[in-house]
Design a protein that fits this description.
Elements lengths: L14 E4 L3 H10 L3 E4 L12 H11 L3 E4 L6 H14 L3 E4 L12 E4 L14 E5 L15 E6 L12 E5 L6 H10 L4 E5 L7 H10 L3 E4 L9 E2 L2 H12 L4
Parallel strand pairs: 1-2, 1-3, 3-4, 4-11, 5-10, 6-7, 6-9, 7-8, 9-10
Helix pairs in contact: 1-6, 2-3, 4-5
Length: about 250
């Protein structure tokens, strides 16, 4: 069996990648013409009745495999992909980079979802929140803390919660920048998702350096099927599952 990179003309397969992560783009590059990458635009794929899901469903029906590789905490895309894969009877693989793990100096409080934050974060806390806008409705019970919600896209929307404000910034951030931000706004806790990877790690390292607690929302577990943590492992799974011989 030859390594499959999408250039083998005899390999007439089609792999749908539901993307949103760097790993999805890298896998699409490796597969070449055999891959079709779908990006979960927040205005398109945000629910089961979204118009894009209809077009995606049509593509899935004619595909040979489906790889779920959105942001590791993107519940909507994971649910959509799992549903469409099951309906089409396709082999479905989840590709997600490894989750972060706490070290000895870390002070983490694991949360099953963002809505559980209110029961754990102390009254009067000043919290840096990096959950993404779709999750903010889950923080409505957190009325006893002041929330600094980071946004990577500039906007002027009103803040939807009782106490707090948006902080706009452009990633990537360094550890030094995160420490400076936490000191400037007198942050005493961080509420974030376990996205894994190097991009979001500086805020975790900054919290460690300052001795701050991190309230870590766990990744959603949508499917019980196979899961891999690297593009190389995803390629191996596809080669084995689809018998990609040149």
């Amino acid at each position: 069996m030859k390594d499959f990179d999408g250039s083998n003309s005899a390999c007439r397969v089609q792999v749908i990648i539901l993307g949103g992560s760097a790993e999805a783009r890298h896998l699409a590059d490796r597969l070449g013409e055999a891959a079709q990458l779908w990006l979960p635009d927040r205005d398109r794929i945000t629910g089961q009745e979204a118009s894009a899901s209809v077009a995606l469903a049509a593509q899935v029906q004619t595909a040979d495999a489906l790889v779920l590789a959105p942001h590791p905490c993107d519940v909507d895309s994971l649910r959509l992909g799992a549903r469409l894969g099951a309906q089409a009877g396709l082999p479905v693989l989840r590709l997600a980079r490894p989750a972060w793990r706490p070290a000895a100096r870390d002070h983490w409080v694991d949360l099953p979802s963002a809505r559980h934050a209110a029961a754990h974060i102390p009254k009067g806390s000043r919290v840096l929140v990096t959950l993404g806008r779709p999750a903010l409705h889950e923080l409505r019970p957190l009325r006893h803390a002041y929330l600094f919600v980071r946004q990577l896209t500039e906007h002027r929307d009103p803040f939807p919660l009782r106490h707090g404000r948006y902080l706009h910034g452009t990633a990537p951030f360094t550890i030094a920048q995160e420490i400076a931000l936490m000191r400037r706004f007198r942050i005493d806790a961080v509420l974030t998702r376990n996205a894994g990877g190097p991009g979001g790690w500086p805020k975790i390292a900054a919290a460690r350096a300052l001795g701050l607690p991190v309230y870590m929302v766990a990744r959603p577990r949508i499917t019980d099927g196979p899961e891999v943590g690297s593009v190389a492992a995803a390629m191996h799974w596809l080669e084995t599952k689809l018998w990609l011989d040149a």
